């Protein structure tokens, strides 16, 4: 059995680890908004290139919205309707999860590494303010936070892991990566990081 207490550094994913996520809600919202079959473009396991592009900041919010209209052949859908459907997967930040992670950060170096995009992050920032009082209250718990669309890189590509490792002079063998997506776990393993794959929407982080 792995002794997770031996790791000096921990890199946390965000959605599905510290933020409740339900991909089915966005799949269902797109289906209701765009029609049957629209869910095929997006899921946790795979997604169309349009979603990959916004996650690395390669297209603007407006270009993403227009891309959704083109993808699903629905020209009459408003920006607000698209944003509501796109954000439907986002849940809350459970306070007890967050407080435990803060406590872990008192004895170890902790980082946040998230595949996200500007539309989602705006809504997540509002959730931080609702749940924790401010964005700073959340982000200051980590030595550094990394959002894919600001880096121009995304998991599971090795370059994003290399960026975190090199910028913070981390030894992979002393570093644990926690994520709820198996493809991201596999990417981290290729660089020699310790890994823990979380499953389910409600997960106990007391193993740390």
Automatic annotation (TrEMBL):
Organism placement in taxonomy: Bacteria, Pseudomonadati, Bdellovibrionota, Oligoflexia, Oligoflexales
GO terms for MF: hydrolase activity
Keywords: Hydrolase
CDD domains referenced in this protein's UniProt entry, alphabetically: HAD_sEH-N_like
InterPro entries listed in its UniProt record: HAD-like_sf (IPR036412), HAD-SF_hydro_IA (IPR006439), HAD_sf (IPR023214), PGP-like_dom2 (IPR023198)
Protein name: Putative hydrolase of the HAD superfamily
Superkingdom of the organism of origin: Bacteria
Pfam families hit by this protein: Hydrolase
